[in-house]
Design brief:
about 25% strand, 6 helices, alpha/beta, elongated
Amino acid sequence: GLVTCYSELGLGTTMKIYLPALQGQSPAPGSEEPLAAEQLRGSETILVVDDEPALREMACLALEEMGYQALTAGSGEEALDLYRQKGAEIGLVVLDLGMPGMGGHQALREIMALDPHARIIIASGYSANGQVKASLESGAAAYVAKPFRLADLLRTVRRVLDQ
């Protein structure tokens, strides 16, 4: 593709974005397999760790609606404390990588040191390279892109729990 930019003082800016035409068939939006809600349900306890309260709340509501028990932490430090207290009850951790303080990657390593069998899904707005790749190599079971679609999150949670 190509992006051009033209700007004149007092007149404004024009941005033109040229993308290549799509070749072949593309699935229609929303045409992916419908969710089999019963297959995504569960009763396990999920720890959702994210420094953004709205994302934590949205994820927890979706998980609880599907029957899961949800715990939350707003930082890596808080997640580690909670995991020390309730690790035996926690079936899975959904962990944001980009948090201030103890970041998600460090929290992942600390949780894995406490419990090498911990199931952790990392959530990140970054592509699957760099920190995401390092986290997957450090023991994370899966990756979900942020902002995540709730269907993707629920599918990934169920898949990792069933592994």
